[in-house]
Design brief:
about 650 residues; alpha+beta; nine-stranded antiparallel β-sheet; eight-stranded antiparallel β-sheet; 18 helices; globular
Length: about 650
Amino acid sequence: MFDKILIANRGEIACRVMETARDLGVKTVAVYSDADAGAKHVAMADEAVHIGGSTPAESYLKGDVIIQAALDTGAQGIHPGYGFLSENPDFVDAVEAAGLTFIGPSAKAIRAMGLKDAAKVLMHEAGVPVVPGYHGENQDAAFLQAQADDIGYPVLIKAVAGGGGKGMRLVEATGEFKDALASAQNEATTAFGNPDVLIEKYIQKPRHIEVQVFGDGQTAVHLFERDCSLQRRHQKVIEEAPAPDMPLDVREAMGSAAVRAAEAIGYKGAGTVEFIVDGSDGLRVDGFWFMEMNTRLQVEHPVTELITGVDLVEWQLRVASGEPIPVAQEDLSINGWSFESRLYAEDVPKGFLPATGTLSHLTFPEGCRADSGVRTGDTISPFYDPMIAKVIVHGPSRSAALSKMRQALEGCEVAGTVTNLEFLGALCAHEGFAKGEVDTDLIARDIVELTASKEVSAEIIAQAALAVAGVLDQPADALGFSLWRPLRRSVYLRKGEEEITAKIKFPSSDEVVVEVHDTEITATRTPKGWRMGGKLAAKAVVANAEVTVFENYGVAFEVVDPLDQSAAGAAAGNIIEAPMPGLVKAVFVKAGETVAEGDRLAILEAMKMEHSLLAARDGTVAEVLAEAGGQVEAGAALIRLEDEE
């Protein structure tokens, strides 16, 4: 076993690896960027080394600097986590050339699975079923169209070096192919520097089921399957293990195929073989096909750990240090059910726009596993993925585990940024999902229903007002009341565009009346706390001119100073602002140009994604206040339109 390892990553996965290393008595070295100087993973590690600026290119992608940090601190191995350098074979070669151990697969194995087209040829040769399609080198547009016509529509165009849904287009008829191909190639070139694509038959009711494998370089075992079908724009949202309605013969066939895939490339360590599955008529042994292999630990690995009782990071460390795979295939079994929900800082009503913010409060309920790389007081940075935590539960059955997940999400308390908590809760309450009727199009089909926000009740507004007024946490003798007339106070709140005035009266030290929207809500003090509307008042936090009531997954209000003056409305719609801190990638207009509502004016890169900034109305560009390559803060004015006449 290693004495010391370096984790070449940050956030949740760095903390996750450190927890297991600590349990095994292995010391850890963290690396960190400027933005992460005070991060949780830095505090957890035995040592920490600063490696550069805030962007990944300046820090977590600098393989040579990371390797030198490992050498300088006496680390014997490097754990890559996921993302960043985890699937970079050149980094693996450099780690081993420096005399260190890469805690993961060989560079050869990573290269074998690095390009989707070559990987599928290799898998076909290994007897692993692959989706009908064209995976060859001929990229002539007419030839590719002919291949698509032969396969039969609908087909999927996919970038061979792709990931995250980039360079992917669905084509439903031959007349759509030419434009879709050009669009996919352009996006692939921008994202990966490689325009090559492959063509595959599109599965009508697809499910995304993946198998966890673990190898020692010669042989491999599988740790059963995970269903990752609940996706939005090809990004996983909620994962579960095992897959619902999985027949035993299909599980055995899929597991055996995954093992063949791993052994075909001499795989060492933890990896995932992803299959696209036809769910239109139940799961069948002839209805699943190889999609790709992720040659690293997956984000969703905890659900596999909870149903098998295996610590996959411990296995990684043991096998990388020369030990055999801890158990044989026949020793592995499934116990119960597990779900994982990905909790993000993102603004769902604004199209799931990634968000930033300083977490003024963050707690998770008992009864769940919360893998997180942030704490109360930490800042969600614009430079990295905006994940707050992975919320994971385990139960004896699917229904029991799903019930625990709903309770866990309701019990998560996050203040200081917007989150997707309410969206996750809506998914867990979705009737079809509860029945196990999952496919990759579920979210897209029901997106309106799933993103509909609950109406904010007068009771929640009243609780927010009482929290701002300091009533909820004050003892009885601190409130006081007048002998001549009830004390009164007004609290001013803002929710979106709505200005709210809550008028508070104090008839006695044990009773408070709040008037909201011409409705009076009475709060009464009890030995267990304040009660209103027939139940105990929810917990609330006031920080940084914001109050958050932890009900309905957290409802936040801006606290308005009555002395502040509202901005004049004349400029409404004139200014195009940066919705978050980021890098201006492109500006498409100049002063004097005429634009129409919905025209793309600029592109802002933030949170590893590109966001198009659109004109809110027809008009003429008065000023361009930013230029490509510039870093801007949230709310910065980028483009101004001339005033409307």
